[in-house]
# Entry
Amino acid sequence: MSKNTVPALVCENVTMKFGGLTAVSDFNLRVPEGALYGLIGPNGAGKTTVFNIVSGVLRPSAGAIKLFGDDITGLSPDRIAYRGIARTFQNIRLFQNLTVLDNVLVGLHLRREVNLAQALLALPQHRAEEARMAQTATQLLEEVGLDDFSDYRANALPYGQQRRLEIARALATKPKVLLLDEPAAGMNPAETENLMRLITDIREEFGVTILLIEHEMKVVMGICERMTVLDHGEIIAEGTPAEIQRNERVIKAYLGGGAVVGNKGS
# Structure
């Protein structure tokens, strides 16, 4: 539920053009603080482009991005991360040769308090912070069910667990808004069920606003309160899961009119 009259994340008339191709056109979005919000649509609809704009990977051709009322349009990805937006990726981007624990520690380094001299000289402040970070990283791994794998290399984890590790690393940056790009991709039904519980638990425990891209309709229909539907870079619908399931334009665009959105097995 919303805790603040100012939305956590706002996209205002966002357009993204690549030469003569318009990937996203006049995109508007308001995600309330504390919401679990879905962004869905067929392949090529522009969903990941929206994430790339919000996270600073791309600068929009037009429009504005606001985080709790502050304009963050065009800021670099590191500055946006520091402001409080973290993300996962459609294609997993872990440090594959680092340990599971070290992958989470990378995220924690975003908000380090010691300076370079203290770190180089291994002063007490540096050692104390390293110990705190290791404890926090272990707690985050426990949160996502990976605490028994902290010494494994990331590339030794099964695919579904790598997805969880990416979420833990994102949480390590202490985000206000968490962008999850197809977190259920490649998961079996049991893993998907566990992921749904994990996402809702994260929202409650960390008080984070979540914007979710997902092709697995069971996930978005099962945990999101509201969602926006994109097709060919344009919004074609917005509403609750029940409203989206009944929307004929969504059914036609997303499923070719062959099924009802949200049906079991879709």
In short: The mean pLDDT is 88. The radius of gyration is 19 Å.
